[in-house]
Amino acid sequence: MLLIKNGRVVDPSTQTDATLDVLVEGDRIAAVGPGLEAPSAEIVDASGLVVAPGFIDIHCHLREPGDESSETIESGTRAAARGGFTTVCCMPNTHPVNDNASVTRFVVDRAAAVGAVRVWPIGAVSAGSRGESLAEIAAMKEAGIVAISDDGHPVASAKLLRQAMEYCQALDLPVIDHCEDPSLFAGAVMREGPSSVRLGLRGMPAATESICVARDVQVAELTGGRLHIAHLSAAESLMLVRQAKRRGLHVTCEVTPHHFTLTDEEVTYDSRFKVNPPIASRQDRDLLLEGLADGSVDAIATDHAPHEPARKDVEFDLAPFGMIGFETALSLALEQLYHSGRVTLPRLVELFTSGPARVLGITRRLAPGEPADLTLFSLDHPWTFRTVESASLSQNSPFDGRSFRGAPVLTVVAGQIAFRR
Amino acid sequence: MFDRFRHLLALEPLSAEQIAFLLDEAKPFQQIQRHPLKKLATLRGKSVVLAFFEPSTRTRLSFGTAASRLGADTMALQAQSSSLKKGESLLDTVHTLEAMKPDCLVIRHAASGAAQFISERVAIPVINAGDGLHEHPTQGLLDALTIRDRRGSLDGLRITILGDIVHSRVARSNIHLLSKFGAHITLCGPPMWIPPELERLAPGVCRSFAIEEALDGAEVVMALRVQSERLNEPSLPRDEYIRLFQLTRARLARARPGALVLHPGPMIRGLEIEPAVADGPQSCVLEQVTNGIAVRMALLYLLIGGTGGLEDLPHAPD
Known about the structure:
The complex is a heterodimer of chains A (about 425) and B (about 325). Chain A has about 425 residues and is an alpha/beta fold. In chain A, about 30% of the residues lie in helices and about 25% in strands. Chain A is globular, with a radius of gyration of 20 Å. Chain B is α/β, with parallel strands linked by helices and about 325 residues long.
């Protein structure tokens, strides 16, 4: 038993924002209210802390199976717990690709055995993510997937996307797309603009993403299916999502902390800045922040993408895309969104909890009977992120050495403490 | 004035004073090129690694000649004969080269930023001999030296650069260098090779897609090599380029009388430049080659010869 006393309980799904106690019994929440007593419970003094429903990251890469020198389900979920996440959804671009129930079961079983937090796998749209025929989606759903995506690549054609979105209506799964026009993407390593021209690095325009978002939105309209745009990075894409929402389509989107924090002016030859989609222009970054504030963006997702150091310590052109993100996500969100005055605390919590839950078509509430997944965080705790102290096996973060105000303090997964600062 | 100038990676971060100093330093080495006996003993016992991870003839030969005329030994690595094909990383290759204890590393690489990447990971001076689409600083210096010799000064120069600007490291180095001296730089070529962002690269840069207009009043015209692989990208038939942008005698007449014609080489006669212009009296192409050796000798001397780099060396005598 765990009794969390005097925290500021913030749950946007029940419109709660009050100083309350939370009692956890076993793996469930037993009670939420003022002045709770439980003589045999371990007491956690949460005064000065925010108590939120457990954070959900709907986009990450845990690299297992196949690339265990970059990350494992064990190391990745420990990093996630340190970041305040109680659930992470891992993309299927492992080796082998998670395109069938046996790989899904491997991930689920491995997570049950060694995972520090819940792992909900995302299955591939197409066999091998090759963009040809549909994967065994129903079998994967039975084994535990919560969405499908060919992440790393866009769904290869409008026809395949149409099939997937139609089929998934029978399975009640969202289709997550990594939006990118392959011909504009080819050979590019950063966002096209004054910085790419100055550095002599090949750039891709923002339209590389938004052209594909436009296609996807039209397929969503055609099929009536659920479409989720991964790591949205361009202002034009956001505009398309806004329009789609206004027209009542089932279209959602996520933005990563690095895309709402960095601008392409900050990109150097340091390959830790190399990420796909690339870091956007200042103007686009500012519009992403607006979208996060005004509700157009549904979720913050990390796109945690570990790469072992040797693979990243190469020429910018040759380095793989991606950066780790679990442990800095909340602090970057506090910095860019909350301390800057752009969003309220309930909206910030929504972006990590009920927002991603809505994308997945589930509800997560901080209420009696619900799973005891809780994220406690401080709004002010000063700390400095150091990749060497990260639980991840990889260190590819451009935020190494960055100082923050506010951090995860306690992560509770199914009633168990997964991380305590 | 020369704090932290241990390598030569790019011209963009240098000041006009630093560049003028480097050009002054090259002057005595220009004279040596005219002597019957050109070999000095200045760097005897020193060695220079020429690490060329991309095919190059003239730049590699120029650096090799510069090192040898200073008395230094060279060790050359060419992409074709390297272990890169065996999957070794650039970093491992360079650490291997460094373990052979050279005094300077000259690097040419197809990736922008490769020279900087290496300079942050080795203890010896690094000279960038061209990194991807980024910079080719010694080319920028030798071009400036050629212009300054002919014109007397670099101040307020009107120059037109023709060709595939966005994919050219030579153009970037020239733009950064000349802009620091207040040049008016006109970039001319097919619009897809001259994106608007280039106007923000440095002060004094403007674009033009009409060659006659671009050449109007130019004191220097620089034609860049049109790389055939670019023509093969879905874009431009060769004849279209020639029709619109080849530097011909008739078009050159729009520039100031006696305007200088520069080309970094290798030159494709009949594509970017008409043979009559390449061989004409206004062409400085061969002078550029000779000046390249002088500039590279000066750099090797400054970076290896001094005890700690440029900051310790006196200014060159006039």
